[in-house]
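Q: Please design a sequence for this.
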């Protein structure tokens, strides 16, 4: 059965992400937002897609917590499996990728990823909420409870499909509007874009494998015992 403190923590994090999604939708004037979100809407940005993903993940996690307390079981098969699938293949890899890639580009030249004009729309604390706190929150979740990872082939394939879906959306927006989602893309040649997207997937896949390794180091014995009981 899930601990009360864990349930409270998950509900607080879920509320935080719901608040962020709502706050961003209300930030800035209508004219500023229409200019920022034109040609693809707010969901063209990986940062904002990640915030929505985290809200959904922690919503599923809270549901899992409640059902476990009600049924007094360690696992609620479908919900627990879906929770682990979301976390291992999407929530942890994407939040870590957003954190690493954003700050690497920001420190090199912020105009490539977060132009200074955005400071007039999003306050400083919101920038850190979108791009900094997402990583430690994912790390806490990784060490708070064990998560079942799929086989490497299945996990990396799902991650690749998700990556290709987002890249496809970025390219489609450019083909339809002639504008890139992020300024950095406009600086790259077609070959440079291919290299950038390839390296981005390699980084994301590496993060997935790192998460699997950390999960095993922390929860290996527990996960092994759980698998034996299920056989």
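A: Design:
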């Amino acid at each position: 059965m899930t601990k009360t403190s864990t349930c409270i923590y998950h509900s607080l994090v879920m509320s935080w992400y719901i608040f962020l999604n709502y706050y961003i939708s209300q930030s800035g004037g209508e004219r500023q937002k229409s200019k920022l979100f034109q040609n693809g809407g707010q969901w063209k940005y990986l940062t904002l897609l990640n915030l929505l993903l985290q809200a959904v993940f922690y919503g599923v996690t809270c549901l899992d917590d409640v059902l476990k307390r009600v049924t007094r079981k360690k696992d609620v098969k479908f919900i627990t499996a879906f929770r682990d699938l979301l976390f291992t293949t999407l929530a942890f890899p994407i939040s870590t990728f957003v954190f690493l890639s954003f700050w690497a580009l920001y420190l090199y030249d912020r105009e490539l990823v977060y132009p200074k004009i955005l400071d007039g729309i999003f306050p400083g604390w919101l920038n850190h909420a979108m791009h900094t706190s997402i990583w430690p929150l994912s790390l806490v979740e990784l060490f708070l409870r064990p998560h079942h990872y799929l086989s490497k082939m299945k996990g990396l394939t799902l991650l690749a499909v998700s990556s290709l879906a987002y890249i496809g959306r970025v390219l489609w927006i450019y083909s339809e509007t002639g504008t890139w989602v992020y300024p950095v893309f406009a600086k790259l040649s077609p070959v440079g874009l291919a290299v950038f997207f390839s390296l981005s997937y390699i980084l994301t896949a590496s993060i997935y494998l790192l998460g699997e390794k950390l999960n095993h180091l922390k929860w290996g014995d527990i996960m092994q015992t759980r698998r034996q009981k299920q056989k």
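Q: Thanks. Anything notable?
A: The mean pLDDT is 90. The longest helix spans residues 190-230.
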